[in-house]
DNA sequence: CATGAATGAGCTTTCATTCAT
DNA sequence: GATGAATGAAAGCTCATTCAT
C-alpha cells in the first residue's frame, strides 16, 4: 500500500454519487424489511445490500427505527399524490374510473415492492404507533377520501345505487389489500399449485364490485369472459 | 381500586397449578404476540402476564419458538374443525349457508383473539416457513376446499351464476381478512371517528357478494335497509 | 445434636432404608461426576439415578458442592486405610510387597469407579481448593508416606539400590495414575484398536520399576514372558 | 504498583487491533481454561483478560465451544509438528534420542502453558467427544507412532532389549503425563514443602526407563549423581 | 466522509435451589 | 420426610450503535 508511488492517476473527478447513498439504502431497506420483517432485518445486511458499510448507514439514518420510518415515508406520499391526480382529472364514467383507477394502482404501486409497505405497516403498527398514524393520515385517509368522492359522484350521477358509502369503500379496499398480502406471501405462492393471477383477480373483483354497486348491472360485464 | 372491600388477597407466590399453566401461558402469549409481534414480545413478559416467572415458561415450552408454534396450533385446529362441521351438515340454500356461515365464523373466531393468529401468520410467515406451511395446510387449504364446495354446489343447484370458482373464493376471503386485520389494528380504530361496525360490514359484504354471485339478484336484498 | 432427647428407638421396624438414601445418592453422584464431570452433571440427574426426587437430594446435601465434597470424601478415606494395613503388615520381600501391593490396589480401587475420584480431583482441584487440600492430606500424602517407607525399607534391607526416594515414589505413582486416567477415558478406549490391558500394563511397569530399583537386576525378570 | 513512574498510560478504550485479537483471546482462554476448567470459565472473563469486551470475543470465535476448540488446536498442531521433525532427523543413538527428545519436549511444550491442554483434554473429553477424537488423532496417535518407531529402531539396532513395544511406549508416556499434571496442579505445589524439580524428575525417569530398556545397563547411569 | 472493529445493553435459556403440597 | 412445580440469578450470545482510523 505505501509503495504506490504515483498518485492514483485516473480522474478523481466524478466523486461517486454521494446523493444516491440514502436512496440506495432506502431501497435496500425496503427490500429487506418487506422480505424478512423489521426485527429480522439486521442493519448490517441493509448496508451490505446497499453496497456500503454499517457505519455509513448510521451516517444517514440515526437509528434503525429512523431508517424504517424513512422507508415507509419514502414509499408512500410521493407515488401516491401522482396517482390521485389521475382520479381527480378523470372525465369518463365512474364505472370506467374505478376500473382504470385500480388497474393503474396495481401497475404503479400494488405490483411493486412499495406495496410491501402496507404489509409492513400491518405487522408493525403496534411497534410504531406514530408511524402508523402518519401512514393512516398520508395513505389510508386520502384513499378513503378519494374513494368516497368517486362513489358519491357515481351515486349522484345515477351510475351507482344509493348505498352506505363507507361500506362501499371497504368493498374496494378489501380485495386490494388481499391482493397485496398474497403478493408478499412467499409461502402461499410456493405451496399453491395455481399461483394467483393478479389481473384476473382484479378484473373479477371489479366486476363483482361494480355489479353490486350499479343500478342496472350490465349483464355482460358481470359474466367473466375468459 | 377504592372499592376493594376485602383486604388484598395476599396472593400466594409459588402457586402450584401444573394443569392450568400451559393454557395461561398460551393465552398470555397469544395476547402479546398479537399485540406486539413475535420479536417484540419478550418471553419474560409472557411469563409475567401469565403470572409466573421466566423459568416456568420454559418449563412448559422448550423455547420461545415452540411457544409461538403452540399458540398457533392451539388457536387453530381445535376451533376450526368444529365450525367446518356446521357447513358440511347444512341443509338450506347456498345463499343462506353463506350468510349463516360467515356470521358464525365471525362470532366464534373472527371476533375473538384467535383471529389475531391470522395477522400473526401474515407478519411472521417469513420467519417461520415451516409453521406457515402448517398453517397453510391446516387452515388455508381447508377453508379453500370448503368454500369451493359451497360455491360449486350453489352453481350446480342454479343458485349462483357460472363462475371461476377460485375467484369466487377470493370474493369471500378478502373481506373477511380485511375485517380481521382491522379488528387487530388499534391505530385504525383509535384514529377513525367511526370505528368499524363488524356486523354492518359483514352484512354489506355478503349482500354484495351474493348480489354478484346470484343469477337473478333479488333487488331488495341488495339494497341496504338501515 | 444436643436436642436428641430420647435415644433413637431402634428401628420402628424396617422403615424403608432412610439410612440408605445418602449412600444411593453418593453412588449415583460418583457415577455421574466421573462419567460427565462436575459441571456437566445436573443435580436432577443424580436424583433420578438414585431413584429419588430433586428435592430429596437437597434434603441430604445442602448444595451440589457439598454433594461433590461428600462424594470425594466418601470414596477416599475408608477404602484406603484398609488397604494400607496390608502394606504395613507385610512380611515378605520389598519386591514382592510392591508387586502384591499394586495388584491389590488395582483390584480394590484402581479398577473400580472410586479411581474416577482421582481424575475428578485433577479436573476440579482449582474449583475446590479446600477439597483438594483434603484429598492431598488424606490420599496423596499417606500414599507418599507409605511408598516412602516401602522404598526406604527396601534400600535399608539391601534389596533396592540407594536412590532419591522421592523420585522412586514418582516412578511408582506415574504409571498408576496413567492407568487410572486411561481407564476413565472412554474416547481413548473407543478409538484405539487395542484397548489397554491393565494387567499386562501393571506387570510391565512393575517389572521395569523393580528392574531399575534393584541392585542386581535378574536378567530374566526383565524379559516379558508371555 | 507504587514504582510506576510514568503516569498511567491512559489506555485508549476501543483500540483497533484486528490482527492481534485472536491470539490475545486464545492466550487468555488458554490461561483460564487451564486454570479453572472449561465450564467454570465465563466467556466474559476471557474477554476481560484479553482486554476486550464480551462482544469482541464472539466477533472472533462464534461460540465458547469454538473458542475452546481453537485453543486446543492452536496449542497443539503447530508446535507439535515442529518437534517431531527433531526426532525424525536424529542421527545419534536411540538412547541419546530419547534423552534429548524428552528434554526438548519439556522445554518447548511440557513446561509451557500449552501442556495445560493435555490436562484440559483429560477433563473435558467427555463433554467434547469430537474434539477428543481430534486430539487423539492429531496428538496422541502421532506421539504413539513416533515413540513406536524410536523404540523399534533401538531394538533393531540392538540398543534396547526385545520388548512389547506398546508397553514401552507407556513407560515413557506415563511419567511425562504425571509431570504435566503436577505442573498444572497448584495445590500440589502449594502444599508440598518440596515442590517438584522437573529436571530431576525427567532425568530420574529417563535413567530408569533406559536402564530397563537397555540390554546392558551402564551401572553408572542408573545411579543418580546429585 | 467512509469504514468496520469494538462495545455492551438486552434477550433467551439453563439449572441449582426453594417451598407449597 | 418426600415431591416436583416454581423461581431467578447467571451465562451465552446478538446486534444496534459508536468511534478510532
Key terms for this structure?
homotetramer, 226 residues, Arc Repressor Mutant, subunit A, Tetracycline Repressor, domain 2, 2 domains, 68% helix, DNA-binding
Give the secondary structure arrangement, pairings included.
4 copies of one chain form a homotetramer.
Chain A: H1 20-36, H2 43-50, H3 54-60, H4 64-74, H5 77-88, H6 94-110, H7 116-124, H8 129-156, H9 165-183, H10 186-191, H11 198-213, H12 219-222
Helix pairs in contact in A: 1-2, 1-4, 1-7, 2-3, 5-6, 5-8, 6-8, 6-11, 8-9, 9-11
The structure holds a DNA duplex (21 and 21 nucleotides).
Question: What does this protein look like?
Answer:
The structure is a homotetramer of 226-residue chains. Chain A has 226 residues and is mostly helical. In chain A, α1 packs across α4, α2 crosses α3 and α6 runs antiparallel to α8. The first copy, chain A, is elongated, with a radius of gyration of 22 Å. The N terminus and C terminus of chain A are likely disordered. The interface between A and B is large, with 53 and 53 residues. The structure holds a DNA duplex (21 and 21 nucleotides).
In short:
Four copies of one chain form a homotetramer. Chain A has 226 residues and is mostly helical.
Q: Per DSSP, what share of the residues of chain A sits in E-state strands of 2 or more residues?
A: under 5%
Molecular shape of chain A? elongated
Largest interface: A-B, 53 and 53 residues
**DSSP helix count of chain A?**
12
Q: Describe the main β-sheet of chain A briefly.
A: none
Q: Which residues of chain A form runs of ≥5 with pLDDT under 50?
A: 1-16, 217-226
